[in-house]
Specification:
The protein has about 220 residues and is an alpha/beta fold. It is built from seven helices and 14 strands. Helix 2 packs parallel to helix 7.
C-alpha cells in the first residue's frame, strides 16, 4: 500500500508542476525514393506565410486543411533558415538561398506565391536540381508571458513538401502543429515536458522541435 501511495504522490506532484506538454505533432514512416528520383543536391524555396481570418486554411501547395492563426513577421525567415540548416546537418547539399531569392525576384514574387509548383519547376530547371523543398507556415504565435507562466502559449503550424523539379509532382508532404499545453492537460507528452525542463517555451523553440520532427521523416533513397 505504501508503494502505491508513493506512486500517486509522485504523479500528483508532477501534474501540479507548472510544466507543459506538446500537442499534435505528426509522425509517419519514412518514405523511400528510387535512385532515379532521389538526390542529395536540392533547392529550398523560402517559406510562404498564409494568413487566414479563420482557424483553418488550405495549403497553397497540396490543398490540405491546416490549423491557422496569427503569424509573426519573423516566421518565414526563421523557418527557412531552420529548414536549410536541418537539411545540411542531414547530409544534403542545398543551393545558396541568396541565389534562389535572386531568381525568384526575376520570376516575380507575386507569381511565386500564386504558382508555387510552377515556380518550383522553373527554379529546378534554372539550378539543374531534381528536387525542391517548399514550406508553408499557417500560424506562428509568440507566447504571452514568461517561461514560468503564460496568458497564452506559443503556437506553430507549418508544412513541408518535397517536389519533383521536372514534373511538379509532390513526392512527400508532412505537417506539424503544436500549441503547448500544461502537463495537467495532457500527460501523454511527459517526455517533451521533461526535455523542456517544465517551462513554457517560445515559438522559435516549438518551430525548432517541429522542424526536426518532420526532417527526421524526410525521404531517403531506396
Amino acid at each position: 500500500m505504501k508503494k502505491w501511495r508513493r506512486k500517486w504522490v509522485i504523479l500528483a506532484c508532477i501534474t501540479a508542476l507548472a510544466g507543459f506538454a506538446g500537442c499534435a505533432g505528426t509522425s509517419h514512416p519514412t518514405v523511400t525514393l528510387p535512385a532515379s528520383v532521389f538526390s542529395r543536391h536540392l533547392l529550398v524555396m523560402p517559406f510562404q506565410a498564409v494568413q487566414s481570418r479563420g482557424s483553418i486554411v488550405a495549403c497553397p501547395i497540396c490543398g490540405r486543411s491546416n490549423p491557422a492563426g496569427p503569424i509573426l513577421p519573423e516566421a518565414e525567415g526563421v523557418l527557412t533558415d531552420m529548414l536549410v540548416v536541418g537539411l545540411q546537418q542531414r547530409g544534403f547539399d542545398v543551393i545558396p538561398m541568396s541565389h534562389v531569392e535572386e531568381e525568384i525576384t526575376k520570376i516575380g514574387e507575386k507569381r511565386a506565391v500564386k504558382e508555387p509548383i510552377t515556380t518550383a519547376k522553373l527554379l529546378a530547371k534554372k539550378f539543374r536540381v531534381k528536387l525542391v523543398v517548399a514550406g508553408v507556415v499557417f500560424e506562428y504565435r509568440a507566447r504571452l508571458g514568461s517561461s514560468l507562466g503564460v496568458e497564452h502559449p506559443a503556437v506553430v503550424s507549418f508544412s513541408l513538401h518535397l517536389i519533383d523539379g521536372e514534373t511538379g509532382h509532390i513526392l512527400w508532404s508532412d505537417r506539424y502543429y503544436e500549441a503547448q499545453k500544461a502537463l495537467s492537460e495532457d500527460v501523454t507528452n511527459i517526455g517533451r515536458f521533461l526535455k523542456r525542463k517544465g517551462k513554457w517555451v517560445t515559438a522559435r523553440r516549438l518551430a525548432h522541435d517541429g522542424m526536426n520532427t518532420l526532417l527526421d521523416n524526410f525521404p531517403e533513397r531506396k
